Amino acid sequence: MIQIRKSGILLHPTSLPGPYGIGDFGPSAYQFIDFLAEAGQTVWQILPLGPTGYGDSPYQCFSAFAGNPWLISPEKLREYGILEEDDFEGQPDFGDGPVDYGAVISWKRDLLGIAYQNFMESSSKELVSEFEGFRREMVGWLPDYSLFMALKEESGYQGWTEWNPKLVKREPAALEEARSRLADSVRRHEFILFLFFKQWWKLRHYTNLKGIRIIGDMPIYAAHDSSDVWANR
Description:
Layout: E1 8-10, H1 27-38, E2 43-45, H2 74-79, H3 101-121, H4 125-137, H5 142-154, H6 165-168, H7 172-181, H8 183-209, E3 213-215, H9 227-231
Parallel strand pairs: 1-2, 2-3
Helix pairs in contact: 5-8
């Protein structure tokens, strides 16, 4: 068996430079891939890309299947026509230091909410079709995750063991009532995940074109406070 020696760089996307307080799948990611190719590197190693929970650690995620919404590029959302220049008014000056996760999450959560509202009010048929196709493709885990996040949001981000006992036990009637009551929030979380994967898949395609292989990572154990554990308890 012939083994080919490879070299590359370990750099999580959150460490990429940019004006939004945290690295993302925007222009800096593509520039980094170009740099790797020009430097003769063939590997980009990253940490887990899941939605981070307490402590903002990529090894403590709310889902093993979903993606981290804070990696979504606001600039790409402008390209999709779901954000306008006015939507960036009030953007904090994040500076060039370490990530201030509290400030980043607060601002990006609001910005993604605006993008969702703009999508619901007026969006291209092509983007709507892509979103519905994504929902069908991810039916094995997306409904549980989006409901989990909607319930977590409603509870002030309590752990699922602290919710209404009927929801903790996943009684069908309680789940149906919650899904109906929180329908807009559920759909918003689905849409945010759609944006994440739309951008991630395009970035992965670009790395392939440049001859760069991505070495990913994943948590060894599912976090207890995650949609995976709640859905399969």
